[in-house]
Amino acid sequence: MGPGQIGRRLSITSIRFFLAGKGLSFRTGKYFGESMLVGLATGLVVVAFRYMIKFARVWLMEGLGHHRPLSHVPNGEVMRQMFSKEAMLDPHRLLMVILPAFGALAGYLIIRKFASLKHARGTDSAIRAFHQESGNIPGVVVPVKSVASVLTVGSGGSGGYEGPVTLIGAAVGSFIARHLNLTVRARRILMAAGLAAGIAALFQAPLAGAIFGFEIFYSSGDIEYETVLPCFIASAVSYTVFAYFFGWGSLFTMPSECAFDSGLRLLPYFALAVVLTFGARFYISFFRMVERKFEESTVKARLKVFFGGLVTGIIGFFFPDVLGSSYSVIRVCFTAGFSDVFAEYGSFTIAGFVAFFFMKAVATSFTVGSGGSAGVFAPALVCGGSLGAATGLFFAKVLPASFGIHPAAFALVGMAGFLASTVRIPLTAIVIVAEISGNHSLLLPAMWVCGISFWLNNGWSLYRSQVHNRESSPAHMYWHG
User: Fold this and answer.
1) Structure confidence at residue 264 as a pLDDT band (50, 70, 90)
2) Of 11, 68, 35, 45, nearest in space to 320 by CA
3) Counting Cβ atoms within 10 Å, is residue 291 exposed (0-12), middle (13-18) or buried (19+)?
4) CA-to-CA separations, 362 to 96, 171, 463, 465, in angstroms, rounded
5) Within this chain, do residues 270 and 222 fall inside the same structural domain, yes or no?
6) Is the same domain home to 190 and 271?
7) Which domain holds residue 281?
8) Which of 221, 249, 277 delimits the end of a domain?
9) What is the pLDDT of residues 126-147, one digit of tens each?
């Protein structure tokens, strides 16, 4: 071996040691087949989950409760159709007050009967399993969590399906790793891949799902290097399976006129980041307060869940848009400024969006904080969108037309900034709003707002189980062992 070959060999060896010190592995390809299997299984589970969601919505909220959001009521008809004596005494609407309570209670009882209650928290439970429980999530969580979450949110509980689906995907990965007799390290990797695959399919956002799978575990912006490629593979397969049944389109549609073509708009977008930061702190602090009060209460757990659902139902009687996933509000946000929607739907003015934000935050806190089986990720999207739309409408009124302020653009960027601020996933937030809307022309303001809101809200997170960085994780005490 000549001197040149020896030098090259030493250089390659040095690089390998350097990357190994950063937590990277040259054996990532070892999990290629396993990651494909996790993606396939998770995709099929999410397909079944999606059909269950549709079934519950049609038979519970729309069937029993005759649920009708304010966004579906034309302007001038709100008082007559929603607050007249006949509307207030409508038996279906009165049933909708208690339906979320019974749905949440049914979901709680199912989890208590067939799975551990520590798995009721969705994404938080998956994060804790990664850090503290060697990636172990019982396989029974998949059917149990699916049914419990569908009953909770499908009956009107204020929450999202993404928390349940991340735990379901993580459980699939953990189950496959155990049955293939893989190591603890591999189990954690496949658990993260399943978590990513769940988000990729349900949100129809494969790239965002993959990033979510290696970004969600830490609050500082640190990532899990060894899970990167498995997350990409599993997310791609999972989304492909889901798209085979439901098509390849994005979750929402947005007017193509929304684009960023003026640096002057960074100034109102900066103001949006500040608004989102204060909104995120209210959301997190109120949720934590409600959660703590329920934990400290000596009332039986089933009564706590029922009460939380009842409070949500009462709020929904006056603000029906807060019930369920509230995606109808996002659709209204994305039409703001491009039609006469605000002439048709007078309830969603600036004040309407702000009021909705507070009511959605309160309803979600009672649904999930009381022990209901639902997620807080999707409500964060909706809350961010409503604050963004309100901010955009405000600037559209006070700034000259030359600024070209589009409230729909502010709604989309608001969704990203609110996620970055509350869930501590800035990369995922930037990508997911582009994928779920089909609009990739607002990446620059999304980066600007996510960076500012993430920095301003440092130390705040919705997820208790997140740790600061890899060095703080118990998982890495044994990661290479």
Assistant:
1) confident
2) 68
3) middle
4) 18, 30, 17, 22
5) no
6) no
7) 263-456
8) 249
9) 999 999 988 899 888 899 989 9
φ, ψ of residue 226 in degrees (nearest 5): -75, -15
Which tokens in the block code for residue 260?
A: 């960023």
CA 231 to chain centre: 17
Q: Tokens 């009107």 identify what position? A: 156
- Within 10 angstroms of residue 349's Cβ, the number of other Cβ atoms is 13
Q: Read off the tokens for 97.
A: 């007050």
- Residue 396 CB-half CA count within 13 A: 19
- Listed range (202-206, 330-334, 412-416, 451-455) with the worst mean pLDDT: 330-334
Assess whether 232 and 316 both reside in one domain.
no
Does any domain span residue 46?
yes
- Both 234 and 283 in one domain: the answer is no
Which parts of 299-406 fold into alpha helices (H)? 301-318, 327-335, 341-344, 350-369, 377-398
Q: Does any domain span residue 2?
A: no
Of 96, 202, 99, the residue nearest 146 (C-alpha): 202
Cβ within 8 Å of residue 201, ≥6 positions away = 42, 43, 46, 47, 165, 209, 238, 239, 241, 242
Q: Tell whether 156 and 293 lie within a shared domain.
A: no
Identify the domain boundary among 249, 273, 295.
Answer: 249
Give 356-396 pLDDT, tens digit per residue.
Answer: 999 999 999 999 999 998 888 889 999 999 999 999 999 98
Token look-up 């000549």 returns 2
219 and 267, same domain (yes or no): no
